[in-house]
Amino acid sequence: MQLLDGKATSEQIKKELMLAVQNRKKEGKKIPHLAAILVGNDGGSLTYVNAKVKACELIGFESTLIRYDETVPEEILLAKVQSLNEDKSVDGFIVQLPLPKHIDELKITQAIDPRKDVDGFHPVNLGNMMLNIPGFLPATPAGIMELLKRNNIETEGKKCVIIGRSNIVGMPLSVMLSKNTNPGNCTVTLAHSKTKNLKAICQTADIIIAAIGQPGFVKEEMVKEGAVIIDVGTTRVLDANNPKGWKLCGDVDFEKVAPKCSFITPVPGGVGPMTIASLMINTLRAMELKGK
Ligand code: NAP
What we know:
The chain is α/β, with parallel strands linked by helices. It has helices at 6-26, 43-59, 74-86, 105-111, 123-130, 139-150, 170-178, 198-203, 254-257, 271-289, and strands at 2-3, 33-39, 62-68, 92-95, 159-163, 187-191, 207-210, 228-231, 235-238, 246-249, 263-264. The chain folds into two domains: 30-113, Leucine Dehydrogenase, chain A, domain 1 (Rossmann fold, 3-Layer(aba) Sandwich), CATH 3.40.50; 139-272, NAD(P)-binding Rossmann-like Domain (Rossmann fold), CATH 3.40.50.720.
């Protein structure tokens, strides 16, 4: 078994981006600027946004964090999105999900200018992805594709089972891996909570990608010898031995599954850092696409 080290791969990407920023500075060009809107105090969202801001600082991007109270009215958020759309100094921005229940996530996502939608969630960008038109790819699936590519994981002709059909991970990833690209050219099965005989389906998979949000869901008996396993899940589980009081758990029973596979991503240190790296790549692209 070999670890698919998302942390190490993302460090390499960040170094490349750092160099790109330094070159831009030398040429007197603009430095990419990423803004993030965070609503409320959810621990997970706070961790993700802080990690994104930290990555910007490391690479040399400008970053702006805009925070709102949990009770912020939808109109205020929409107005902020509009002002970021118009702000020429901001190249790309994200609205950290999930949002409180009184806010319509789709409405907010649709309000973002697709040219600044570096999370790649806007319908225009998802449509572009379907039709192979250049745009922004959703950060987590794009990060997984980059991880496969940079670690020379063979995907052509492979049978890939993706568990979880969310709009931000499973669904777009199923499209990307089906395409005539490298990585790609997989025969993809997209499984969900209504899928029957999931164990048998997984047993035939060369690649399993789990994006469910249920710790340890993928068990040893579901995995065939030599399979590649990508674990997207990140669930906070109470842990008295951890100073934080919790630990991050993936969707795969790592200890039991790892010895059977050829490659496996750890949690943490697998898909998470690659998501952030993709966001940074998208931000640089957002600026370059504007011809700055
Ligand atoms: P989500 O919106 O939470 O949806 C979960 C998906 O899992 C749904 O499609 C659901 O099926 C499916 N599912 C639930 N129980 C199932 C079962 N017993 N058998 C088969 N499928 C089942 O998904 P998400 O937003 O993609 O998040 C999934 C996990 O990935 C979470 O832990 C999240 O924190 C993590 N995540 C990590 C990153 C990262 O960068 N590392 C990024 C995004 C998400 P139905 O559609 O039928 O309900």
